[in-house]
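Request:
Um, any thoughts?
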Amino acid sequence: MGFKLSKRLQAVADFVDPHSFLADIGSDHAHLPIYLVQSKKIEYAQAIENKIGPFIRMKTNIESAGLSSKIFASKSDGISEISNDVDTLSLCGLGGVLTYQILSSNLDKLDNIKTIIVDPHRDLKLVREKVSSLGFYIDDETIIYEDKVYYFIVKFKRGKIDKPYSTKELLLGPKLLIKKEPIFLLWLEEQRKKVSSLLNKGLTKEKRDQALALYRVIVSALK
């Protein structure tokens, strides 16, 4: 193996199905596709950056790994120029709004996509709701704690859900609520304390009602 992934990227890699064709959006150093091809989990990938500096760095890393025939470097915006062979997308480290904008602005490019893996650093509720509205369901989720930061990785698969996700599921994650991993429960308890502290401050009635509703959702998830 050429290098070891961070815990966050390793969790993303674990969600990639074997033998899929990955397009890694905002690939940065191309660590994810390089790791997946080197480990023979997948054979081909497309690494995408939209700025010249990161693109050159990414392309150099791919060439240094001797994988130019397996990983195709693209300087383009979002998924606008993904290969027709791509069936899996990874969008890691982006904001939730940007993640959805990238997907929704090129809907025709989603026709061949079976799996979408996201790691948004904000607006997770929005991502769960909006990506699901594009014809995908939440297949799996996990939470990683690394460098004093919690990262949420969500795997969407093509298909429909039996019923719409509840507000609680959109806020906290339907799979995370089922799995109740220790790290998830630790995060929930931290959120409970934060919201509890917030409730003791001078809030407008509207803000207090919102915080109280969130507090009740968190407490119910901890039971």
Remarks:
- Residues 182-199 form the longest helix (18 residues).
- The beta strands are 22-25, 45-49, 71-75, 88-92, 115-119, 136-146, 149-158.
- The chain has nine helices and seven strands.
- Residues 25 and 158 are 19 Å apart (CA to CA).
